Amino acid sequence: LKVRTFTTSIRAQAVPALTQDDLKKLAADKAVVYVKSGMVLGLGTGSTAAFVVDKLGHLLKTGQLTNIIGIPTSKRTEEQAKSLNIPLTTLDEHPVLDLAIDGADEVDPDLNLVKGRGGALLREKMVEAASKSFVVVADETKLVSGLGGSKLAMPVEVVQFCWKYNLIRLQELFKEEGVEAKLRVDGAGKPYVTDNFNYIVDLYFETPIRDGVSAGKEIGKLEGVVEHGLFLDMATAVIIAGTSGVEVKTK
Ligand code: 5RP
Hints:
251 residues; alpha/beta; 4-stranded antiparallel β-sheet; 26% strand; binds ribulose-5-phosphate
């Protein structure tokens, strides 16, 4: 496996410090260059993907893009796309997409990802797996040397029925990585419910996951687990915006 990196410098003299949102917008600018008129597009979820959807809306409105049709990966993105008059479809109607663009929570050196801190992992994985290309947009804070290495959540979507039973089984599966498993709750302290009416168990690792492929398989074997946030060998390109430039990493 060989990851290639192309960097475009974005710094000029006396440029004010870029905020994280500025970096996300720069990544989004670069990503929409991949979009061509007539494409069926996967529309990601999260703050970075939302900048991409905004830009697509603008390109459509100004006639710079025509005839694109999107498949949103969450109800939030569906609402945003509708508000921008982006035509929408479903995987049932378009089972093969030309391109999906989405954010990520972690990106490792081989372009494997953790996704789903925004809770949309199931629809994201379905849409992105069905896409001929999958371009990830992120700022440099998302780079990790190993998945699980950010010490932030690696989400697992589980059915509501006996969720605690699966939380304990997930904790047991990763006891060597020193995992802490927690049910995700919303702002009111109630269990967070996904767009698919499931719960999310967040896994917090003390040390990065040693073997992502086997971790994904083992999690997938648990009955009642609907999907997990390891997106392995799925990204075609990752656009990383940092304070010293925008990098495009491809396989
Ligand atoms: C949502 C996701 C998001 O793409 C991920 O959480 C990144 O979000 P943001 O761009 O807001 O950092 O996987 O389920």
